Amino acid sequence: MIKKVLLVLFFIVLTGAIAVTLLAWDLSNFSHKPAGTEQIDQQIVIRSGLGFNQVTDILYERGLITHKWRFRLVARVKKADKKLKAGEYLMSTDMTPIQILDKLVSGKVLLHRLTIPEGYNLNQIAETAETAGFNKSADFLFAATRSKYARELNIPADTFEGYLFPDTYFFPSGVTPDEIIATMVHRFWTQFPDEFRTRADELGLSIHQVVTLASIIEKETGAASERPLISSVFHNRLKKKMRLESDPTVIYGIEDFDGNIKRSHLRAKTPYNTYQIRGLPPGPIASPGRDAVKAALFPADTSFLFFVSKKDSTHYFSKTIAEHNKAVKKYQLRR
């Protein structure tokens, strides 16, 4: 009798072991086999608060897994079912269940590109962020003009104008304006090394003044080689207490500028009209790139006091008003 019982128990254990082995083999085979052989990309959004079963349903409905119960079991064995991170993901039908789980656990969410060109101001940056699908421009501008937030990020001004470093960034969907701004400001400070701070002290300029001057240089020329020359003109004029007379500063102070600068604009009394005020305007007029900042700190050694556009993206530089007037006739009036 005892032998029969032991024999039955043996067969039960053996059957159980075989079943476990077969299940383990089945799950291993499933977990390393993609749903399809072709790469078909799928963007899926895992909202915060979704349960694991709901996530599994989404993956199954999108054709990313072939069996829901197997996927759930694999996830529980790996203790991954409670570690999934919310976000937007780019998955593919040629990914294995293990790869899908690893991506959801690691939080490797889909990132979207945001490119800010050199010389963009806050309004343009806000519009670019909205066009890229991140935030409403009004929400971005509200965040970018909060003086308290600017102070929290060590910006020596009431807004972030000039301090949102122009570059290409990658952000996940759902990123807030504050998060975008913080990333851009962090990039700005990484591009303003101690060497620049030391040089600013040598010139007797604050960081805010350096960024302001750099923003004007950035807007005055698209030719990288000219930036130190443009800088030298402004430094020379500042030393002689001459007005900077920079058109981009005038334009910045005009509401709803239509692209046509007029004599009345040059006579307008605004804080940014450097035809009317002496010295630098109260703040930056755009976000300068590193080269413009460097040019502001390390101008070329010249005696130039004037420059005029040659209408080919470069400028003619002059030391005297007489020479400048001749250049204006030649390049602007075509006389």
Characteristic key phrases:
335 residues; mainly alpha; Dna Ligase, domain 1; 3 domains; two-stranded antiparallel sheet; two-stranded antiparallel ribbon; 6 strands; elongated
Characterize the structure shown:
- It is elongated, with a radius of gyration of 31 Å.
- The termini are far apart.
- Helix content is 49%, strand content 9%.
- The chain is mainly alpha-helical and 335 residues long.
- The chain has three domains: 34-109, 2-Layer Sandwich (Dna Ligase, domain 1), CATH 3.30.1490.480; 111-190, Dna Ligase, domain 1; 204-304, no CATH class.
- A two-stranded antiparallel ribbon has the order 1-2. It has a two-stranded antiparallel ribbon with strand order 3-4. Strands 5-6 form a two-stranded antiparallel sheet.
Helix content: 40-55%
Largest sheet: 2 strands, antiparallel
Indicate the overall shape.
Answer: elongated
The total strand number stands at: 6
**What percent of residues are in strands?**
5-15%
Supply the helix-strand structural class. mainly alpha
The radius of gyration computed from the alpha-carbon positions, rounded to a whole number of angstroms, is: 31 Å
User: What low-confidence regions span 5 or more consecutive residues with pLDDT below 50?
Assistant: none
Head-to-tail CA distance between termini:
122 Å
Taken in chain order, the helices and strands follow as HEHHEHEHHHEHHHHHHHEEH
